[in-house]
């Protein structure tokens, strides 16, 4: 009896165009709440077939991973160079009405439809398509590929990958984050900070309210103060008119509390977020909230009942981006896109994290942000083509 040879990695046929790469990546359902390991394994196999090793950094559950890979320079250098960065996760399609299956990409009218088409599997697809070209080019500096998980739930995955770069002394000289910008250069975005506040009171029958401690009522006072902070910033600045909303915004976005009409609620929790201008300290706002709790709310609560307790938990935080115009990566992307306009956006990206780690970063990628997160998300073939031309020019600019 003979043993049939098992297919090995190299027998896999990988896509041969940027469009096919994007299709392939879309076909993996990498909604943030689920694992992205199948997609990561596929990319890892492909790179390994090209002779490129991948470094994976996992989340606590081991079900999600970042992938970082380096195409070395012609002389074998693996430090310095440019990072091409994209997130592999996508937002859910729950409750959305799609014309075609979001995870079975479909070409219609020159557009490729599917979840993640523009945000941001199109960009990742183009970078993978160009790996052989990177290898054929006599690079003066390495080119790095950085693919993260959990960007869509607050840039949760990338920090461990970036920490690993720091630990290994990779020290890239610049980073392009390929979020959908219609291939224009975006030089700044706000920081995003998300917190959960839990107000603990004391339960009692509603006929005995003085024996309880009403968590909802105290949460409401904190929420009103958060609104006052927001109004103060709106009235007094600081301002940056290059942003659509030219100041830091603050709001409470979720609230839960109470179990029955006839029970004093012993717990109220709410989430608040603020989006700070990149130049302004995100610590100040949190400190203002804490100061109000410490000076006014806690004394008042504990007078009523010793059970009083308030905790604030950080859920997500990603720093703002403010790319320096004279940074080499800014000038390179401006030259390659022939785009000199200063554009700043309100959505967060991983560019702020790279910049905070000392890697000058800029955002430029295929597709329109207005298509992202929506039903019938798409990227146009024209945008994929433009991205491919941009990255080829970028690779050529790194030739020895
Ligand atoms: Zn994105």
Explain this structure:
This protein has helices spanning 18-26, 37-49, 117-129, 131-136, 158-167, 215-236, 283-304, 328-337, 351-356, 381-397; strands at 54-58, 65-71, 82-87, 106-108, 111-113, 143-148, 174-177, 188-189, 191-200, 204-205, 249-257, 263-264, 267-276, 309-318, 321-322, 344-345, 361-363, 378-380. It is α+β, with helices and mostly antiparallel strands and 400 residues long. A hairpin with a 2-residue loop joins strand 4 and strand 5. Helix 1 packs across helix 3 (117-129), helix 6 (215-236) packs antiparallel against helix 7 and helix 8 (328-337) crosses helix 10. Residues 1-9 have low confidence and may be disordered. The structure holds zinc ion (ZN). Zinc ion is lined by residues 87, 119-120, 151, 179.
Topology:
Layout: H1 18-26, H2 37-49, E1 54-58, E2 65-71, E3 82-87, E4 106-108, E5 111-113, H3 117-129, H4 131-136, E6 143-148, H5 158-167, E7 174-177, E8 188-189, E9 191-200, E10 204-205, H6 215-236, E11 249-257, E12 263-264, E13 267-276, H7 283-304, E14 309-318, E15 321-322, H8 328-337, E16 344-345, H9 351-356, E17 361-363, E18 378-380, H10 381-397
Parallel strand pairs: 3-6, 3-7, 7-17, 8-16
Antiparallel strand pairs: 1-2, 2-6, 4-5, 5-18, 8-15, 9-13, 9-14, 10-12, 11-13
Helix pairs in contact: 1-3, 3-10, 6-7, 8-10
Bound molecules: zinc ion.
Zinc ion (ZN) is lined by residues 87, 119-120, 151, 179.
């Amino acid at each position: 009896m003979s043993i049939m040879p098992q297919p090995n990695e190299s027998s896999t046929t990988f896509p041969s165009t940027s469009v096919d790469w994007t299709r392939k990546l879309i076909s993996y359902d990498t909604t943030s709440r689920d694992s992205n390991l199948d997609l990561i394994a596929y990319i890892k196999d492909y790179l390994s077939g090209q002779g490129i090793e991948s470094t994976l950094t996992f989340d606590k559950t081991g079900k999600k991973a970042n992938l970082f890979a380096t195409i070395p320079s012609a002389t074998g250098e693996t430090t310095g160079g440019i990072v091409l960065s994209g997130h592999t996760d996508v937002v859910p399609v729950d409750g959305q009405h799609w014309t075609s299956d979001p995870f079975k990409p479909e070409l219609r009218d020159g557009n490729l439809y599917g979840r993640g088409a523009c945000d941001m599997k199109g960009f990742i697809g183009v970078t993978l398509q160009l790996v052989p070209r990177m290898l054929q080019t006599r690079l003066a500096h390495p080119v790095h590929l950085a693919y993260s998980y959990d960007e869509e739930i607050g840039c949760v995955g990338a920090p461990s990958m970036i920490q690993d770069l720091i630990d290994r002394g990779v020290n890239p000289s610049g980073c392009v984050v390929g979020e959908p910008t219609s291939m224009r250069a975006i030089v700044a975005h706000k920081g995003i900070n998300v917190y959960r506040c839990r107000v603990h009171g004391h339960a009692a029958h509603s006929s005995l309210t003085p024996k309880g401690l009403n968590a909802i009522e105290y949460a409401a006072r904190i929420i009103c103060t958060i609104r006052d902070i927001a109004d103060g910033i709106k009235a007094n600045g600081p301002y940056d008119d290059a942003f659509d909303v030219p100041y830091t915004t603050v709001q409470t976005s979720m609230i839960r509390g109470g179990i029955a009409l006839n029970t004093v609620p012993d717990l109220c929790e709410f989430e608040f977020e603020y989006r700070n201008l990149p130049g302004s300290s995100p610590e100040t706002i949190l400190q203002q909230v804490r100061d109000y709790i410490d000076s006014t709310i806690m004394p008042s609560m504990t007078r009523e009942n010793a059970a009083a307790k308030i905790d604030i938990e950080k859920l997500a935080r990603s720093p703002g981006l403010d790319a320096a115009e004279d940074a080499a990566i800014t000038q390179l992307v401006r030259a390659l896109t022939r785009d000199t306009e200063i554009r700043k956006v309100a959505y967060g990206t991983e560019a702020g994290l790279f910049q905070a780690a000392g890697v000058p970063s800029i955002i430029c990628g295929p597709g329109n942000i207005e298509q992202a997160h929506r039903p019938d998300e798409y990227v146009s073939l024209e945008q994929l083509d433009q991205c491919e031309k941009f990255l080829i020019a970028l690779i050529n600019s790194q030739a020895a």
